[in-house]
């Protein structure tokens, strides 16, 4: 399990999401508004908006908040956000991708660069590390929809390419161009997913020692907490012992 999944699971165990719920809602609302602005305000006609609403529901965001974010787009309100991808190297040379949505490119770039530098890493040019990742679709379900075998069978029937199951649930990967179709097929079998989105999946995850792993997780957490950052991905793997320690 590579950096992004491990980071999420550790934050889940720590209850981190609850502590920053308002910030999480703010980021989700921003994505909903941008998605609705870019396409139709109807989630059935706009896959990106539908994915944003699924993510919001998974975090128990109130329906009123979701509708308000859509209405902002319909009414032409809200700031004009620019989507930017940052790439860099964290401690130990691990590759990291940061996806941000900002109304102030200079501020965001300055902040992200300082986080990398303070961690002992460095921000690089766009394209410097993304070749080590695949851009793929990801559909997530909780552990209660079925066991690993049942989900794997359903995923194959839906046209997915890979499944990773754990105590936290099931991650189903597919080609980025077929995300919408695969999601609909899986939804018919397992119900509404927790998430359906495009992600950066590392091609060859790199194991890191525990000291480096702690530094990397601190950087990931700092990046994730920035108001303009939507997603963070890494190509490193932590030891199970470190995961237990950090989740404790």
From TrEMBL:
GO terms for cellular component: cytosol. Keywords: Cytoplasm, DNA-binding, Transcription, Transcription regulation. GO terms for molecular function: DNA binding. Residues 5-75 form the TACO1/YebC-like N-terminal domain. Signal peptide: none annotated. It is found in: Cytoplasm. The keyword Transcription regulation applies. Gene3D superfamilies: 1.10.10.200, 3.30.70.980. One of its GO terms (biological process) is regulation of DNA-templated transcription. Coiled coil: none annotated. Residues 81-236 form the TACO1/YebC-like second and third domain. Belongs to the TACO1 family. NCBIfam families: PRK00110.1 (NF001030), PRK12378.1 (NF009044), YebC/PmpR family DNA-binding transcriptional regulator (TIGR01033). This is Probable transcriptional regulatory protein I2H38_15690.
